[in-house]
Sequence to fold (177 residues):
Amino acid sequence: MPKSWKVFWDLQCPYSKNNWKNLESIKTRFGSEYNFSVHLTSLAFHPQAFDAQSAASLIEGVKGTEAKMKFVNACFENQESYMNAALGDCKKSEVDAALAAVAEKAGVFDEDFTKEIFLRDLHDWEKAVKPAYTEHKFALGYGVYGTPKQVIEDKLVPDTESAWGPDEWAEKLKTLE
Fold:
């Protein structure tokens, strides 16, 4: 039976973006040995991260995990559009608009889940905020206080780098056995 490998990302973190770029090649190399799962958290110094995480939770609740991952991918592909440098001293509505634009690029909107519904529900406690906060607490339970972080077999793996690809992970995995 495959072991668990949990990946923790902050959607505003450039280091998480580095790890995101390598995850498919890591999964290709180790997918027969590990079940990979992606989890989101938000770091306090990334002011748009929790809103992005809430958006991902909302999308997952309405459209499912596949749509959430389309949004996550679009967040990293378009990360510069909602970084501090792009938004500056912005209003909450400007952050919401930037995230709605990312969701639109991800192709998650349709006649049943529109941009208007997204914007209406993005800060709804039950639909978006509580699920995001629950996932954030899940990360904290593993000692994830930065990102990206990897938890293998329910143990936080120390001393890893965001830019690692399959070869570096192969070496690190040898030290965990």
In short: The chain is about 55% helix and 10% strand. The helical segments are 14-30, 49-63, 65-77, 84-87, 92-106, 115-121, 125-141, 166-176.
